[in-house]
Backbone:
């Protein structure tokens, strides 16, 4: 009782974002260009956890699972990109007696499970199971991602969002003092196969130096520039762990290279190295040839461990979180259950680490070098969050897209492995919600600074939905080299093409431009919240908390636009008479044309 | 008594004040009968004026001869004063202690405060029962005003005027009063215009262990039922607690004697349990240690949000009975001055859009809390820091405001007022220059002559200049019943009260300013469009 007033029939919401306006209706199901129906099963019962069983028809296409209830009033649909599926299981056998006990259980990557009951006679379960397995896991079944078949077209080309040279130019590189240079040394991915072709490195380090340094860093991921402070020239540099090993190996080249970085903005004090790992893990990594920058070898550097746990810990934490929010939400000991998942605590450590980096660069005016083990998970979280705090450009929609393209995609966060795109091996130990955790941190920041971000919550949720959907090429594969081989830019559509063509939906009405300040969110547990609108969104009993305000605000903006238009019209019809005083005199606060700084927040 | 006797040292120079989010101030500390004042004696610099009655606890600490007094306020703020000189520091501390714990109500600041503003509308007369009744009369003629309590003899904690069923005469009311604890016989709390159902409130019936009954009581509440209809009695205590109350002479309505009523027990905590919950919550919120890993457990262990949930759930139940079931409701707990009022007033907010306006909310506070005899002075005598022995303190009213905030958060466009409005009410309930929250009931307030001797909070708040601060720019009258979600995931800690002294709200405030700006800009444009349209029309007629 006493819950949401009008629970909507469960289904849709975020999955619907996938359905493009241009989608054609065939057989009464929405299809994207390039999408076709592969199988259709009648007499399927969708066992909804919230509203009970619903009888209907299931369509499986090369892109989605679509369920439509037979009942028309209220009719109910379920529209799920197959990419979101992590596991399909058969439940019940031929001898199962209970009602609806024979069917399929589908585990999804986005915090929900789906259950369908099928008839025991006939081969409908087998056929549904087979087509689901075939199209949900194209890689395992020798097919290609739907992204390669997607023929949707958009007014924008998202592949043009991130052009490395332009981004470095925006940052002011190459800098006036010529301390940094932009190099093509990795254009054939020979220096480091998981790095992008264009890198920014210290100007005084020659190509040979770079090769030697790369040799001393795990997977060849040598320190390269992520960001440079426009005023104090302090930089954020990212890399992987040094290959110190048990014997305490040293590399004079690496040591000198780090010293050049330290000196680049004229700072003489120590270079701060942020090692994202807990110190015990960093030490343990020596056993497998890794390690961290020891005091003896790097006398002019100081290592700070940020205590962020590894991908396995994060995966386990999210699994626990799912346990308490889906299908039923833990009621009696909600807060302590939430605490025992440690999800918010991990968020806290990631955010707190990024804050230290940002503070070092901004207030401490000194450069920071960031690494974890391989420098593609925790390192990406830290650099991208620190950049968000330091540089207001990344808080715009365009800037945020650039940030993801740059720090995550181009620097080889292994999306394919972490998400398991198209792979049926659901128990793969390399899967981990690292990117989700980053987006959660961003959401926490938007909560604490409601005017600082140009995008809204839906923008973040849309990105996460397409992290799994495989509708776009953006998050596919693990590094630039692979994407180049697969000709991703030519053969697939970018997520940003889709998003940027309907940007209105994603604008935060509170956004105020020109906030060049550094944002320091509070990373105390007291000020972190569970992202209910994401993690508990499938539960129809939860009210979408922020919606009414956003809704109302947008209405107001529309009203304002209409009024402005009307005002203009009236003034035009007004002028020829020449009798009346000019309108702007009647109200001193604003001229008819919106020139106040605030008017820039208009949609 | 002269205040001067209590002030051992009226003035100390070179005192350093430290407050959350504000730069430290060095200046002169002065003690007056009601205020602690710190001034740097420089133009344009902010001063501290702290009411002694806002002080909940003080601690002193010495390093050499430099003393530090830590003042913990009832509004949960903590400030530090560094005072040079051990003797001065001790004197100041003991003076503050004495001045902040004055026993006599008439020595409190509201009796000395003279308004520096023009009273446009006297708040003491803003909300009169007669006026409420006139409004009610438009919809129904089944109720009447009774003056049976005009001398406070029938029920000392009721106001002189109450609304009762028309068919019940004053003699019956007197008899019923003897059957209800503290004489709190059932009175009208809310009339639901949509379907004519009502909500009444009272205290528990005095059935005792041998099951006393009172036919007049039965008759009175049955008079509110339509023919053939059943009603609900919502008892805010668990069945167990209600049964135990019988051994002390209290009890609950037996089915046999009230066949037309269905009784539902809900368990809302009261008194010291709530006070302890507040103390634990504030302790956890202020914990400055870096090891915050256990924050959520601590928050849960304080049970504060559980109390919020229980109260909201019961209020939703009452509202549901009225709006969805189409049944009338009687709400009571034990004494009928705490949980009963939380439930009835929140049900108002859920059901009645009028109560979500500033004026309507003030009227609700006046009617369901002040007139209804919630003992503010007892409940708000101490807040979360006080070390002195608790007597009758309980954050009953703060919990009610917290529940309002939760609903407001879930329906951000349905309230005419903003969060600040609720916070200001919280502050004034605990310490104020106004007389509104003094005394424990109307009877005491009359004896204290508050109307004559003090200024009403409403006189101050309802001036246009002050009201401006409390408007919700997103407000759009919503005539519907609003059902809040009470799932634990939907309830949040009220940062604006419990964490406001440990994180700056600057950025959140900026967002609200931005909204306000756009709304106002729209209004400007609308006005301009209207003006132009008028001019156009005039021109056209000239043609």
Residues:
């Amino acid at each position: 009782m006493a819950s949401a007033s009008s629970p909507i029939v469960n289904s849709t919401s975020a999955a619907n974002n996938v359905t493009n306006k241009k989608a054609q209706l065939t057989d009464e199901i929405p299809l994207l260009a390039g999408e076709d129906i592969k199988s259709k099963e009648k007499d399927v019962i969708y066992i909804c956890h919230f509203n009970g069983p619903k009888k209907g028809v299931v369509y499986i296409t090369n892109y989605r699972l679509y369920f439509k209830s037979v009942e028309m009033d209220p009719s109910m649909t379920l529209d799920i990109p197959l990419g979101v599926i992590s596991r399909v299981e058969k439940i019940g056998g031929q001898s199962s007696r209970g009602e609806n006990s024979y069917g399929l259980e589908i585990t999804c990557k986005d915090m929900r499970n789906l259950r369908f009951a099928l008839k025991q006679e006939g081969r409908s379960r087998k056929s549904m199971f087979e087509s689901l397995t075939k199209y949900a896991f194209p890689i395992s079944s020798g097919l290609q991602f739907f992204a390669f078949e997607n023929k949707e077209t958009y007014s924008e080309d998202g592949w043009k969002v991130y052009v490395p040279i332009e981004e470095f130019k925006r940052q002011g590189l190459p800098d006036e003092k010529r301390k940094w240079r932009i190099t093509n040394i990795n254009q054939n991915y020979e220096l480091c196969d998981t790095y992008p072709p264009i890198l920014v490195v210290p100007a005084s380090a020659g190509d040979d130096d770079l090769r030697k340094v790369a040799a001393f860093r795990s997977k060849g991921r040598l320190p390269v520039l992520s960001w440079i402070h426009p005023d104090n020239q302090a930089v954020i540099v990212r890399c992987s762990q040094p290959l110190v090993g048990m014997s305490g190996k040293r590399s004079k080249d690496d040591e000198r290279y780090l010293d050049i970085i330290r000196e680049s903005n004229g700072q003489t004090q120590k270079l701060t190295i942020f090692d994202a790992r807990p110190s015990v893990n960093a030490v343990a990594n020596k056993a497998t040839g890794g390690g961290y920058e020891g005091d003896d070898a790097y006398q002019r550097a100081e290592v700070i461990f940020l205590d962020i746990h590894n991908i396995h810990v994060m995966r386990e934490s999210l699994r626990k979180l799912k346990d308490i929010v889906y299908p039923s939400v833990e009621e009696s000991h909600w807060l302590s259950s939430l605490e025992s998942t440690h999800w918010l605590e991990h968020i806290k450590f990631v955010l707190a680490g990024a804050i230290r980096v940002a503070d070092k660069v901004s207030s401490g005016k000194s450069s920071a070098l960031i690494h974890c083990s391989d420098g593609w998970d925790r390192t990406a979280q830290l650099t991208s969050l620190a950049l968000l705090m330091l540089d207001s450009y990344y808080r715009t929609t365009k800037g945020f897209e650039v940030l993801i393209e740059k720090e995550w995609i181009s620097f080889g966060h292994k999306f394919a492995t972490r998400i398991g795109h198209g792979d049926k091996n659901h128990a793969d130990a390399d899967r981990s919600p690292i990117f989700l955790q980053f987006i959660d941190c961003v959401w926490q920041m938007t909560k604490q600074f409601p005017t600082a971000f140009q995008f809204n919550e839906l923008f973040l949720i849309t990105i996460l939905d397409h992290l799994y959907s495989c509708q776009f090429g953006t998050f596919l594969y693990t590094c630039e080299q692979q994407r180049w081989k697969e000709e991703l830019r030519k053969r697939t559509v970018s997520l940003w093409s889709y998003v940027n063509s309907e940007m209105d939906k994603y604008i935060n009405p509170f956004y105020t431009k020109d906030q060049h300040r550094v944002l320091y969110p509070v990373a105390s547990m007291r000020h972190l919240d569970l992202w209910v609108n994401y993690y508990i969104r499938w539960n129809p009993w939860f009210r979408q908390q922020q919606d009414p305000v956003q809704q109302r605000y947008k209405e107001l903006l529309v009203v304002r636009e209409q009024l402005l238009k009307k005002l203009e019209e009236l003034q035009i019809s007004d002028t020829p008479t020449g009798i009346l005083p000019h309108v702007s005199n009647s109200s001193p606060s604003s001229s008819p044309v919106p020139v106040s700084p605030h008017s820039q927040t208009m949609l | 008594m002269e205040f001067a006797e209590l002030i051992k040292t009226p003035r100390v120079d070179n005192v350093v004040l430290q407050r959350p989010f504000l730069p430290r101030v060095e200046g002169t500390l002065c003690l007056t009968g009601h205020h602690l004042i710190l001034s740097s004696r420089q133009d344009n610099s902010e001063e501290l004026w702290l009411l002694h009655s806002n002080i909940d606890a003080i601690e002193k600490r010495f390093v050499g001869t430099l003393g530090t007094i830590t003042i913990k306020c009832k509004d949960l703020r903590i400030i530090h004063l560094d005072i040079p000189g051990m003797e001065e520091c001790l004197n100041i501390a003991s003076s503050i202690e004495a001045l902040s714990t004055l026993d006599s109500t008439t020595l409190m600041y509201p009796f000395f405060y003279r308004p520096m503003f023009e009273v446009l509308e006297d708040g003491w007369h803003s909300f009169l029962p007669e006026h409420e009744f006139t409004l009610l009369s438009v919809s129904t003629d089944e109720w009447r005003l009774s003056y049976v309590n005009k001398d406070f003899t029938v029920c000392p904690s009721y106001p002189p005027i109450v609304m009762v069923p028309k068919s019940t005469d004053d003699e019956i009311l007197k008899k019923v009063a003897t059957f209800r604890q503290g004489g709190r016989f059932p009175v009208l709390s809310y009339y639901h215009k949509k379907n004519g159902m009502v909500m009444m409130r009272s205290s528990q019936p005095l059935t005792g262990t041998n099951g006393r009954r009172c036919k007049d009581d039965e008759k009175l509440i049955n008079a509110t039922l339509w023919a053939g209809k059943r009603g609900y009695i919502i008892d805010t205590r668990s069945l167990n607690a209600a049964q135990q109350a019988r051994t002390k002479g209290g009890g609950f309505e037996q089915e046999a004697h009230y066949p037309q009523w269905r009784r539902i027990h809900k368990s809302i905590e009261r008194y010291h349990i709530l006070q302890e919950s507040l103390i634990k919550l504030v302790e956890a919120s202020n914990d400055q240690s870096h090891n915050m890993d256990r924050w959520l457990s601590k928050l849960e262990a304080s049970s504060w949000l559980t109390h919020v949930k229980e109260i909201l759930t019961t209020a939703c139940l009452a509202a549901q009975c009225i709006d969805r079931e189409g049944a009338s409701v009687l709400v009571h707990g034990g004494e009928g001055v705490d949980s009963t009022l939380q439930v009835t007033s929140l049900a108002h907010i859920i059901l009645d859009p009028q109560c979500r306006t500033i004026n309507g909310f003030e009227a609700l506070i006046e009617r369901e809390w002040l007139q209804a005899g919630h003992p503010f002075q007892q409940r708000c005598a101490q807040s979360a820091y006080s070390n002195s022995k608790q007597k009758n303190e309980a954050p009953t009213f703060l919990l009610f405001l917290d529940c309002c905030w939760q609903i407001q958060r879930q329906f951000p466009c349905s309230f005419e007022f903003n969060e600040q409005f609720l916070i200001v009410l919280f502050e004034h309930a605990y310490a104020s220059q106004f007389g509104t929250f003094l005394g424990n009931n109307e009877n005491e307030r009359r004896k204290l002559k508050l109307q004559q001797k003090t200024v009403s909070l409403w006189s101050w708040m309802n001036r246009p200049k002050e009201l401006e601060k409390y408007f919700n720019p997103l407000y759009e009258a919503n005539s519907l019943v609003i059902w809040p979600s009470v799932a634990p995931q939907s309830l949040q800690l009220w940062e604006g009260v419990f964490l406001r002294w440990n994180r700056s709200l600057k950025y959140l405030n900026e967002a609200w300013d931005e909204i306000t700006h756009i709304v106002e800009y729209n209004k400007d444009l609308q006005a301009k469009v209207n003006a132009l349209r008028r001019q156009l029309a005039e021109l056209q007629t000239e043609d």
Observations:
- Chain B touches chain A through 60 residues (CB under 8 Å).
- Chain B has a mean pLDDT of 91.
- The first strand of chain B starts at residue 11 and ends at 19.
